[in-house]
Amino acid sequence: MNGRTPGPWLVTGAGGMLGREVIAELGRAGLPAAGTDRHELDVTDPERVRTAFRAYRPAVVVNCAGWTAVDAAEEQEAAAHAVNGRGPELLAEECRRSGAVLLQLSTDYVFDGRGSSPYAEDAPVAPRSAYGRTKLAGEAAVLHRLPETGYVIRTAWLYGAGGPNFVHSIIRAERSRATVDIVDDQCGQPTWARDLAAHLVLLGGAARRGGAPAGIYHGTGGGDTTWYEFGRQIFAALGADPARVRPTSSEWLAWRAPRPAYSVLGHDRWRLAGMAPLRSWRTAFRAAFDEVRRAVT
């Protein structure tokens, strides 16, 4: 670092599901933090990014800001790239100048989704969607500009009390529909936003102490399942009959952007850094469910 007094954590996109969880986790850890939403800090605006760094003087930046409208990105790739590619580049440049650590959130969509065994952190990337391409651009910018203090954390199938997310949607569907059709040909890892937030705080702290190598980490729940099986788990947790969940194929759904058929990520980098990866998605779901259900109106 550059020798100045350590500053607080800065969380961009703090109004979103994950950003709120990161702010809450920092509070539980007793760490000073500031959060900005897209109205307070437009990460695509160089002057506003510079102003934010002058105002907050952060030691660690967690970039939860992002374009997450996967289908809309197919028709608005330039706009998505501004947020997902150019935004991380601007943040990385300011982190380089100030000596701050940057934790950049990314996605399983950087892979082609045609695998059959967990993707390692250094597995070849081949995004098939505009969303994946724009997130990969953000990864590249961070890793290039911050080879020693830049961290990319890929996540997937994120849910939490903050919503909107798959768990919220299925809870609402169970209340209003006799049956629910869910795709059974996509395999991945449900990830509780609070678990990911806790790992981000651990990683950022280790990074400040020089105890975690920079680079790519995978922040997803352990194990794997399909959307269909996950839906059945949600019904069971509600005390509803899982037989009301019916399997269907992705080809019947009119998505503009292709979804990865296989989104299971490997977690070896955590262990190499001396930290445990996220716990099993099933264990996390049991811990999360009552709080997530209470948040659904």
Describe the structure.
The protein is α/β, with parallel strands linked by helices. It has 10 helices and 12 strands. The chain has helices at residues 17-28, 46-56, 70-75, 77-98, 130-145, 166-176, 193-208, 227-237, 268-272, 281-295; strands at 9-12, 33-36, 60-63, 101-107, 150-155, 158-159, 180-183, 187-188, 191-192, 215-218, 225-226, 245-248. Strands 2-1-3-4-5-10 form a 6-stranded parallel beta sheet, with helices on both faces. Strands 6-9 form a two-stranded parallel ribbon. Helix 5 (130-145) links the parallel strand 4 and strand 5. It starts with 8 loop residues before the first strand and ends with a helix. The relative contact order is 0.15. Residues 1-6 have low confidence and may be disordered.
Name the beta content range. Answer: 15-25%
The tally of helices reads: 10
In which range does the helix fraction lie? 40-55%
Our Rg estimate from Cα atoms comes to: 19 Å
Structural shape: globular
User: Which runs of at least 5 residues are low in confidence (pLDDT < 50)?
Assistant: 1-6
- How does the helix and strand content classify structurally? alpha/beta
In the sheet with the most strands, the strands line up as 2-1-3-4-5-10
Overall strand count: 12
Distance between the termini: 46 Å
Residue-averaged pLDDT, rounded? 96
Reported for the largest beta sheet, the result is:
6 strands, parallel
